[in-house]
DNA sequence: ACCTAAATAT
DNA sequence: TATATTTAGG
């Protein structure tokens, strides 16, 4: 337990590096890699694009935004990502827009999340009153919600905690990931305690990188999760029958 | 502009 | 039944 720490740089020297290392290339790399990683919904069609509002309000057709997108199916995987996002920012601060951003699932709308959040809150309420062993108002229709464990702090009004923004202790690199390498071969995802870091090979010693933005952080987390779960096909919005 | 709960629609 | 949309209010 102790020998590992000696090989790793100290937090003090690593974390300041993050700002200069992370921002431009990594964000880009994520966007490149993630194109085949999401957006493969129903039988391979791309999702209907939500085009930014055109200044063009008359002119015959403006179907871009009026286009009906397929009804979202909340798979257990998708719901789990929802729960993770909510847990990450704390249930107190969880609002649709933020949750949506943290989930970083292409095609997912704020309305999708708002609707789901509304239902989820009702589910939490009806769990409060059920307490432990028996009784419980959780019905047969709650399979989806029951598929992901509810973090303990969701239930009790105790304080506002946003799950993690602490400096984790260091553990062996890449030991927890089956595919430590992604992006362009030089960057690895490293899970340490509850936080995810990027690691990059510099000279001999690995350099740990703390993702700067919350958004990027969540993308790292989501990607690593996808790898961990051994899914070849990762989290789609509109699953086909093989789901 | 965004959030929320409730009602209603598909 | 599950999700979306609307409504009314903050």
What are the salient characteristics of this protein?
DNA-binding transcription factor activity, alpha+beta, 4 strands, Arc Repressor Mutant, subunit A, Myb_dom_plants, disordered N terminus, transcription, DNA-binding, globular
Task: Walk me through what this model shows.
- By secondary structure, the chain is of the alpha+beta class.
- It has a domain at 76-127: Arc Repressor Mutant, subunit A (Orthogonal Bundle), CATH 1.10.10.
- Helices cover 39% and strands 9% of the residues.
- The protein contains ten helices and four strands; from the N terminus they run αααααααααββββα.
- Strands 1-2-3-4 form a four-stranded antiparallel beta sheet.
- The chain is globular.
Topology:
Blueprint: H1 2-7, H2 11-14, H3 18-34, H4 63-66, H5 76-89, H6 96-103, H7 110-128, H8 143-146, H9 152-155, E1 181-182, E2 187-192, E3 195-202, E4 205-209, H10 214-228
Antiparallel strand pairs: 1-2, 2-3, 3-4
Helix pairs in contact: 5-6, 6-7
This protein binds a DNA duplex (10 and 10 nucleotides) through helix 7.
Summarize this entry quickly.
It is found in: Nucleus. With 243 residues, the protein is an alpha+beta fold. Helices cover 39% and strands 9% of the residues.
* Mean pLDDT figure: 62
Uncertain segments of ≥5 residues (pLDDT<50)? 1-61, 164-186, 231-235, 239-243
By DSSP (H or I, 4+ residues per run), the number of helices equals 10
Structural class of the secondary elements? alpha+beta
CATH class annotation of the domain at 76-127? Mainly Alpha
Overall number of strands:
4
- SSE string, helices as H and strands as E: HHHHHHHHHEEEEH
CATH topology of the domain at 76-127: Arc Repressor Mutant, subunit A
Spatial order of strands in the largest sheet:
1-2-3-4
Largest sheet data: 4 strands, antiparallel
Domain HTH myb-type: 74-125
InterPro entries: Homeodomain-like_sf, LUX/BOA-like, Myb_dom, Myb_dom_plants, SANT/Myb
GO molecular function: DNA binding; DNA-binding transcription factor activity
Pfam families: Myb_DNA-binding
